[in-house]
Amino acid sequence: QIHDYKEGTPEEKTYYIELWDVGGSVGSATSVKSTRAVFYNLLNGIILVHDLTNKKSSQNLYRWSLEALNRDVAPTGVLVTNGDYDREQFADNQIPLLVIGTKLDQIPETKRSEVLTRTAFLAEDFNAEEINLDCTNPRYLAAGSSNAVKLSRFFDKVIEKRYFLRDGNQVCNFS
């Protein structure tokens, strides 16, 4: 993905962002986890994609994010009694997260509010931006749309995580 960091500002600079899809295989086998773990080294951002029509898909995001953040090894990575994850596990996370829900077009209008409220809490747990997509409508990611702006801001955060220190000083100078 080619991304113009801070597009439209004097600091604008073009970067190449490499995206890896590690798949959503649910297997708890050590081999499946260790295979995915290869991709987690030096990650600079995480896009969590789930199916809005499948509640279990949304719930799996917690486990996958903890796995990617190398926090699923301790008992704290399990469900607590009310079925929610402990939000504190994400409180000190320095990795930018983006939550994308797909298949918005397949949710009946009567259920949309309920589903979107549930997923909004999910994104809040991760301290992440949320994008919900109607995959049949290209306007959902059209230039200038709120979703396109959220995606651009996410990529800006990923670039800052990779190339800049917290105080704004550049760590590396790549062209």
From TrEMBL:
The keyword Iron does not apply. GO terms for molecular function: GTP binding. SUPFAM superfamilies: P-loop containing nucleoside triphosphate hydrolases. This is Rab-like protein 3. Belongs to the small GTPase superfamily. Rab family. It comes from Ceuthmochares aereus. Required for KRAS signaling regulation and modulation of cell proliferation. Regulator of KRAS prenylation, and probably prenylation of other small GTPases. Required for lymphocyte development and function. Not required for myeloid cell development. Keywords: GTP-binding, Nucleotide-binding. The lineage of its organism: Eukaryota, Metazoa, Chordata, Craniata, Vertebrata. InterPro entries: P-loop_NTPase. It comes from the Eukaryota.
